[in-house]
Design goal:
The chain has 93 residues and is mainly alpha-helical. The chain is 38% helix and 4% strand.
């Protein structure tokens, strides 16, 4: 009988959380993550993002492969949809 093996690869960078209280607000510091990592963390598909942005999925895939070419408006919409600050997701602006 053949055994099925599952290989799990950790694609996420080390993310450090610094919890503190500043003016009664919780402060969390994170390293930057890639657009793909952010999407996977939120369990969204490329199709979900393309539909939200109103673009073809191939266009979204190009943005994910080279996020530096996303417009500021697209970057902010993507970050909002995924629930991250846009400067946490790696947009090299």
């Amino acid at each position: 009988m053949q055994k099925n093996l599952l290989l799990v690869v950790d694609i996420l960078p080390k993310v450090e959380y610094i919890m503190g209280v500043e003016n009664e607000k919780e402060v969390i510091a994170m390293e930057k993550i890639t657009l793909k990592q952010a999407r996977l963390l939120r369990e969204k598909t490329q199709e979900n993002l393309a539909e939200y942005l109103g673009i073809h999925v191939q266009t979204y895939r190009k943005i994910e492969e080279n996020p530096n070419e996303a417009t500021i408006g697209q970057a902010k919409k993507i970050a909002k949809f995924l629930g991250f600050e846009y400067d946490i997701i790696f947009f090299d602006r």
